[in-house]
Design a protein that fits this description.
alpha/beta; 4-stranded parallel β-sheet; 3-stranded parallel β-sheet
């Protein structure tokens, strides 16, 4: 089962798994996009089912496992890919949008893992792929909530790895850097802003990200970071003293550009 499967990384993860012979349950809010993707994937000769759900909705989250079981399917792989970001300083943020992000990026991950894991452990096999981000390795002023959400996903996934040792169930955190998908536009970045903030050698194709994630899932690796440049950058950010790193990132983040211009004393 793949959440956030209607586009971007989620859709490519579905293509990667279908190409390896896995049947799929695709989950997202946009049923029309899911149906179109499902039709394409069925051409690979695998079973593909569509379940529309809003992971910000507690009832939709709570009912997902039962809806999969009602299809006569036993979930062997759970991919928590659905996610979104807000942009800009917290002091000017919309409260509802912030809480919606936390519901999708954090609460849904924890709830679905908690609901799906008991059956996997009982059967003695299964795998979970939680999509985090290289943003998990450091604070992210300008996207404070998003960085914190992904730090939760990474820490939570690592903890599950320790808990599940010897059960036959693995957990992997996929931590992409910048990827050319619609995620950037939805977060509120212009493409020019994103590409000016992050050098071209750090950008990975969605195909490379999905392949890296599924390869790591198949091997039971705890963390996967697509691209050597992103791996080096994530480790450097993790090790750099935050009193140095945070002001530097705040100066560079496009989400704080207008704030800097309008702040008292700007330009002096």
């Amino acid at each position: 089962m793949i959440t956030g499967a209607s586009s971007g990384i989620g859709a490519q993860l579905a293509r990667e798994l279908a190409g390896r012979g896995h049947g799929l349950v695709l989950v997202a809010r946009r049923g029309d996009l899911l149906m179109s993707l499902a039709e394409d994937l069925r051409g690979s000769g695998v079973r593909v089912e569509v379940v529309t759900a809003d992971l910000a909705d507690p009832e939709d989250r709570a009912g997902l496992l039962d809806r999969v079981l009602e299809l006569g399917l036993t979930p062997s792989i759970l991919i928590n890919n659905a996610g979104l970001s807000t942009l800009g300083p917290v002091h000017s943020a919309d409260v509802d949008r912030e809480l919606n992000m936390i519901a999708v990026d954090v609460v849904a991950v924890a709830e679905l893992c908690t609901r799906f894991l008991p059956g996997m452990v009982e059967r003695g096999q299964g795998a979970i792929l939680n999509v985090a981000s290289t943003a998990a390795f450091q604070p992210l002023p300008g996207q404070a909530g998003y960085g914190a959400c992904k730090a939760f996903v990474l820490s939570y996934s690592r903890s599950l790895v320790g808990e599940l040792a010897g059960t036959g169930v693995s957990v992997t955190a996929l931590c992409p850097g910048p990827v050319q998908t619609g995620f950037i536009d939805a977060a509120g970045f212009s493409r020019e802003q994103a590409e000016s903030a992050l050098p071209s050698f750090m950008w990975e194709s969605v195909e490379n990200v999905a392949r890296c994630g599924i390869d790591a899932l198949a091997k039971g690796h705890p963390v996967a970071i697509p691209g050597t440049a992103n791996l080096v950058a994530a480790m450097a950010a993790h090790l750099t003293p935050k009193r140095i790193l945070v002001p530097l990132m705040a100066r560079q983040h496009p989400g704080l550009k207008d704030v800097r211009r309008s702040s008292p004393g700007a330009g002096k």
